[in-house]
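seq:
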Amino acid sequence: MTARRAAVLAPVLALVLALGGCVSLPEGGPVVETGPRSGDGEEAGQYYFDPPPPPDGASPAEIVDRFLDAMTAFPISTSVARQYLTPEFRESWSPKDGIITYDDFLSPRGSSQVRVTLVGGERLDGSGRWRGRLPTYDESLTFPVELVDGQYRIASAPDALVVPQSWFEQRYQRVTLYFFDPNARVLVPEPAFVPRGDQRVSNLVSALLAGPGPELSRVATTFLPAGSSVELSVPVGDVVDIAIDASGGAPAPTPEAVRLVVAQLAWTLRQVPTIERFRVSIDGRPVQLPGGVTEFEVTEGSAYDPAGYQATDLVYALREGVLVSGDADALEATDGPLGTRDLGVRSFAVDLTSTTVAAVADSGRTLLRAPVRGVEATAEPVLSGATNLLPPAWDVSGRLWVVDRAGGGARVTTVLEDGAPVQLRVPGISGSDVRSFLVSRDGSRMVAVVRTASGDQVRVSRIRYDQKGLVSATPARRLVWEGGDDVRIRDLAWRSPTSVAVLHRLADELFEVRTLSVDGAPAGMESVATTLRGRYLALAGTPVTTDSVWAVTQGGLVDASNQMRDVVDLDDGVTSVRYVG
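struct:
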């Protein structure tokens, strides 16, 4: 990095700022607001960086260097950056199509073709969703340069904002966009990044209107008119008006569609603490529920909760082989078949309604299903003849997920509500050495710990459906963090609908619980890592962020989500501690 560039960026990178639009980058110059902020948790004081225009007589390399500087303008603006482009390219350049971040770059070199090599490059799409690390061959950017009226100007550049990772982390925040599963039964959360600041509501709605994208075909869908533009009123008190412009292309939504539209907006907008209610219009038509209701609370749509509607926070466990439940410090035997006699169960999963339990018995070869309650009930075999079944999982649709560690590698099976087993190939998980797995309660993600020769990996696959049911799975993507490759993972658990907690060993009696986002984006400032001393066997967690994440020892539980490190002693013989799901 050049000394001049470092000098320009140094004061800028030290700031925490509020931003303008994300999906549509503003073209105008900076607008400065000073003074303390209130209500949104952001730091007081805002500053700006107004980059200089191209100097006369600058060399091609200097023009490219200053162009990269200009993209770090704050508030976000590309008006100065465009001055570094040729007139023809200035009109076609589309930085709103994505963001490229980097840790550093090598100084620009060249004359007619200026090359810049990025270090640690990553990419986000135009909706602010992380798309992964740049391949090595894409980290080398080439900027053709031409003479325009005797001055060098850039004739081509990536259709993206190219900015330092540290700049991005200070100015963007992680949020969640809410879409629906293909059968409109549950919301599917998708992590994204939007700029901080006063335009946060507009940025959230704009990103939501961009839709889930073709890569999530048959994983998620939207009931908002995708690709539309949005205008928001200045909030009056805690109410905001959302005007969606679909250019006349959106038909009037049915009452059922209105409920789904309201749910998507409510779950997305509730991330802005200053907004409590909202009104919506599409092409000038007010959106209303039966009875003429046009003003909606951000708490609407609870029945579509991706963490499971009214799912209990009670803990379940095995005590000397029988099923117990209750608060972590007060576990009592259930009165169903698994709570009244020892059937040789070694692991289990209780469904989200707390009515049915699936249990692995017969040393991992048999899967039983039984009511949680009912003295006269019986346990029935669901699968038999397996090799080594891992603890199963349930989703909100009543599907039971099973992984068998067979001789040729893991086999994934889902058991439908009618009891029919369906084998599913999950590329990157099926056929691998899977040590543990999770399925999101909305049924859209499978997360697995896969053991390789170089260490354990956390991999995530998306599950596809159509109106008839399960279809296929996407190739699993590895979640990478700075812990390195030689990692041994003991367990993982949900921490939120879009993040998992991973328990891995640092030393003989030193463990770490680290939170990873399911999209693989680096956590940056939001990284959560807890170090625990002792010997830990497993985790028990849920996607409900207010629930405790328990680190399980031989004789107790330690709350890894609480700095107070609450400890609960367990009775002798208690194993396999977990929540529903």
